[in-house]
Amino acid sequence: MQVQICGAGISGSYLYMLLRDEHRVKVKEVRDTVDCVCAWGIAYRQAKELYREIGLNFDEYVLSKPKFAIANGIKFKNKNIVTFDRKSLLEELWKEIEFGQNDADIYIDATGTERALLPKIKEDKIYLTVQYLEEHEIEENVYAYARKTGYAWAFPLGDNRWHLGAGDISYERAEELIKKLREFYGFNEKNVFCSCRGKVRMLPPSKCKPFVFEKIVGVGEAIGCVSGFGEGNAPSLECAKILFENFYDRSEYEKEVLRRFKWIEIEHKLVECMQNGKKISAMLKIPRVAMIERKRSAFSLNFFKLIKI
Q1: CB contact at 8 A, 176 and 150
Q2: How many CB atoms lie within 10 A of CB 201?
Q3: pLDDT average, residue stretch 141-160
């Protein structure tokens, strides 16, 4: 088959490596170089296993393994989330990619929030993000400050380097969240040396249909593979693997995405309840989310601490 992948981010680059031995694959990418957008956090064990399948040693790109995640001052034990050098990893994969355009039999939409090929989502939910690279001498934990409409984060990148960001319904509100994060945890603004803006899709896969449209198949963030807490790197890799495994049966691919990412649906429902002030409904959902996170070995969640956020 001739395959055209649009987008060489996390899911597009990984899918290329999976498909290239069996198909004639090219990648169309609007960027000339890899950007640094994204919090660079990922579920370690899943990333290590998935990247091993394409011959890449993920450990070479791990920057930090924080002991704790601290949200609004409440501490959770981090069991599996690491930060990694996403930019260098993608740069390494781009060396292997054949860029260009095919008169393809199938087109892969790996364009994230742009969803450039698939039909637009009628009631899309795009959060706008502001992001900074900075230097700080602060203990290497994951820090977050959340409110109903969004949250800010700080991820350690090693050697006193940090990635700070925030997502909310507007850039102005995202900047407000960054300010709150700085005040709460002591991240001084004078240490900024790089900044950018971006977007993140905060909808689960069930609300991002269709995944398959004529000769187009969506993958990764384009079809809502982002956890309710904003982690999209590992789900996007897994989504690409699911497509590879079901490449000749696209209806089965759609079913498998919905089945494998049922946990994303549950997390988004919890976030919606918390955003809408439905504390009782949120309390009822927290045990399931805690079980999900234990299974994913991400964070050790305390039910009652989580509802305070």
Answers
A1: no
A2: 24
A3: 91
What pTM, to 2 d.p., does this model score? Answer: 0.91
Encode burial over 66-104: b for 16+ CB neighbours within 10 A, e otherwise: beebbbbeeebebbbbbbbbbbebbeebbeebeeeebeb
Residue-wise pLDDT tens digits, 106-139: 999 999 999 999 999 999 999 999 999 999 999 9
Structure tokens at 24: 């004639």
DSSP secondary structure letter of residue 297: T
N residues, the chain: 309
CA distance linking residue 83 with residue 32, whole number of Å: 24
What domains can you pick out in the chain, each with its CATH number?
A: 2-66+85-122+203-261 (3.50.50.60), 126-201 (3.30.9.10)
Check: CB of residue 165 under 8 Å from CB of residue 153.
Answer: yes
Written as one letter, the residue type at 27 is V
CA 24, 30, 34, 39 torsion: positive or negative? negative
Residues above pLDDT 70, as percent of the chain: 93
Q: What is the pLDDT of residue 282?
A: 73
Question: 117 with 6: CB under 8 angstroms?
Answer: yes
CB contact set of 243 (below 8 Å; sequence gap of 6+): 15, 108, 217, 219, 253
Strand ranges of the sheet holding 24-28, from the earlier edge strand across to the other edge: 24-28, 2-6, 106-109, 216-218, 212-213
